Amino acid sequence: MGLKLALQAFVVLVGFLILSGAVNTSIVGSNGVLNRLAEDGVLTPWFLHPQARFGTTHRLINAVALLQIITIVASLGDVYTLAKLTHSASSGRSSSRHWPWSFSVQEQGAAGV
Fold first, then answer.
1. Measured distance CA(34)–CA(59) in Å, rounded
2. Burial class of residue 25 in the structure, from the number of CB atoms within 10 Å of its CB (0-12 exposed, 13-18 middle, 19+ buried)
3. In whole angstroms, how far apart are CA 84 and each of 52, 79, 104?
4. Which residue of 6, 38, 89, 113 pairs with 108 in a disulfide if CB–CB is 3.0 to 4.6 A?
5. How many independent structural domains does the chain possess?
6. pLDDT digits 0-9 by tens, 52-101
7. Distance separating alpha carbons of residues 11 and 6, to the nearest angstrom
8. What string of H, E and C letters represents the secondary structure of the chain?
9. Would you say 64 and 30 are in contact if contact means Cβ atoms under 8 Å apart?
10. Residue 3 pLDDT exceeds 80
């Protein structure tokens, strides 16, 4: 019984670390895109204010983190609601273009290619 509990705790820890890395990657990636938008004048220059100690655009990073937290709280952490939001954001022609790619990748994996 103790080994089973230890393995479950290990799986939870690894899952937490993987998701933490994914969140960090999304914040860094969106920060880069939003920096370019602010530099090009699409967003106001207010967002480009550097943080005194680290020199990062802290207002953009805080805005992205806040929007992620609001999304999680608004969905009450329901994975199915978040999946529906993701699906509705990519619906239309873009999702229909990805279906053949998805199936071809699955077939290659099943065929051992």
1. 11
2. exposed
3. 40, 9, 24
4. 113
5. 1
6. 898 889 999 999 889 888 888 888 878 787 777 776 666 554 555 555 54
7. 9
8. CHHHHHHHHHHHHHHHHHHHHHHHHHHHHHHHHHHHHHHCCCCCHHHHCCCCCCCCCHHHHHHHHHHHHHHHHHCCCCHHHHHHHHHHHCCCHHHHHHHHHHHHHHHHHHHCC
9. yes
10. yes
Q: Which domain holds residue 15?
A: 2-111
Structure-block tokens of residue 76: 């009450």
Q: What is the pTM of this model?
A: 0.60
Q: Are 28 and 56 in contact (CB under 8 A)?
A: no
